[in-house]
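Standup notes
- HV: blocked on the assembly model, inputs below
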Amino acid sequence: MDFDLSKPQKLLKESARALLARECRPGRVRELMETGDAHDAGLWQAMADQGWTGLVVPEEHGGLGLGLVELAVVAEEMGRACLPSPFLSTLAAAALVERAGNDAQRAKYLEAFASGSLRATIALLEEGADWDADAVRLEASRDAGGDFTLSGRKLFVGDAGAADLIVCVARDGDALALLPVERGAEGLTLRPTPSMDATRKVYEVTFNGARVAAGEAFGADGDARGALAGALQVATVALCAEMVGGMQWVLDATVEYAKTRQQFGRAIGSFQAVQHMCADMLLMTESARSAAYYAAWALTERDPAAAVAVSVAKAYCSDAYREVANRGVQVHGGIGFTWEHDLHLYYKRSKSSETLLGDARFHRERIARLVVDGDAL
Amino acid sequence: MDLNLTPGEQQFRDEFRAWLRANVPPEWTGGSAGAEDRTEYINYLREWQRKLYDGGWAGISWPKEFGGRGASLMEQAIFQEELARANAPQLVNAIGLSLVGPTIIALGTPEQKARYLPKILSGEEIWCQGFSEPNAGSDLAALGTKATRDGDDFVINGQKIWTSFAQMADLCLLLVRTDAEAPKHKGITCLLADMRAEGVSVRPLRQMSGDSGFNEVFFSNVRIPASHVLGEVNKGWTTAIAALMNERANLGTGIQVVFKRQLEALIARSRTVERGGRPASEDPLVRQKLAQAFLELEILRLNTNRALTSLSKTGIPGPEGSIQKLYWSEMNQRTQQAAQEILGPYGQLKEFDGGTWEYAYLRTRGNTIEAGTSEIQHNIIAERVLGLPKSY
């Protein structure tokens, strides 16, 4: 057994950290926060040049064909830098096309994803804000030729403003329809819904008679539901790794501050009340790391425990990142509460990450279904 | 990264598993840890260890030249897991095997090695650990049990406490103060003490859970030959740290299997106890708590595997043990609290499931105190992992 990164994985981590340290400094994060779509074309291209946009895209489609552990390595560094980017949304959409697309669709889209020339997102949530595909109510109506017409509203759609393609998850009778709608399509309107974490843009997406040809739908002749679940698992693993990177940044900044900030004539890090908060932050960060990388490994290996592992990781990371950020601000004291200090970027990121792709409660219920109702224990 | 066992590790596991299947005694009924007369119970445990020894499964981490197997850290973890999985009786000489033996191997004289090591392995001599005192708990170096040199002997006077296995032990790894004038870390000596010597008395300490896992040990003019010093006189703190490192290198690999069995039992129970007229397992809040208990146990398993990987590569027992101890002890308390919430008043009933839930709830209260309190573990992590300045 070897629960450690391999040498190439460690090199990948170093190069990811170096690139983001150069291209995504905190000042740049703040600038992107203030933009409409938090998308930096130059930064995106730099990431694409590194192969990150095609990291898990199969080689036959121009990607690197690497596993989710490598993806997690890069995502962790993105989280450390608090990178604002449509990366995660596009990753989810690409993973969906890879699983649900027919040969022609895979050929059409995957190479574009890999090269970085296509950005996309999945529109899943509605008023109930439920990440379970069974909660989808938006009905796609079919005409005599089998083409779809979409009318209805999707909420909390990540990075819709930067996306060339929005994959709408709709009902088609008892089945799920995965319908790609291109930017600027007739009957498609986007409304930004500014939220706490301005580094992650979310939108209300309204379809008003938007049309999708029958042949364009993903997963029409297969398991759309399973493909969607699989794609969301990939995105969840990447998100968990991203959260680990964020926790690590907060921990490092906090420990550094505790060593230098003086009160009562000594470093505040010499007080046990502060020390114990920092020790808890370490324990949570490392535990989150164990869970995230195990989920990445299990999913790559198609381990039977992968579904449980992904939910364990997200349930744990959701609580842990919030708690780490919370303690980080507490140890920093007043300066940690200011706009000037970068901590609030991570504090807010922890909150948006907590609910994205299902919060701890959501994933604990998933675990219960597998472990209490099933026999995954 | 590869979380599968290597072929070698798998072979080790299969071999030991097969041995356990053939040798683990049927369910023990002849006595209990809480009984007044423990002779029968102790003899039973000694026999079990002898069986392991004869099978070549005692002290597997020890070098081959001292009768061990030279097992890797990963194999030791597998060994502990398999013992727990097979529901095997506890190792009566656990302290001898995991703490005293490795310390004698590291610091003992050739005579001490020849005299003590074989009987630790066979279980002929059971060891206890005389470290903590009423006034030296977290601050172990404040210990005051006095040793005065008299000819070829040390004369010991004082008291130890929280001593596991003392009531059945033949020998004790004993920390005493040999120089009262020196700074507290520099006047301590480590002795290999005979528990049968005149002047040693043992009094079991009854815990809130009703049983007596620990003892008080009193020393009144006990004579111990000076040749029984382990390491050097007044350098006992070094010996103690070496011993504690060995203790903490045990990352709790066996205990997680026990926790898993308890969680399985809790999930099974949640299907039979009711909440609002339906099985508790259907109650959303109960489901959340069960899932939380499951995921926290998963984290323990994964953290353990990461720590094992790291220790295997560096070879130096570090603060991993503190992180593990802090996590599992607090996790265990949360899980048993969840069990009490799910079971309601049944959880407190001594006749319900043989009182296991009542016992577990009380026993886990001690987890964050014994073997280094949570506060001490936090301090160790803050100072040794995070590099924060010392607080005391």
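- HV (later): unblocked. The beta strands of chain A are 120-123, 140-142, 148-158, 165-172, 175-182, 188-192, 202-212, 262-263, 266-267. Chain A has a mean pLDDT of 97.
- Next: hand off to the docking folks.
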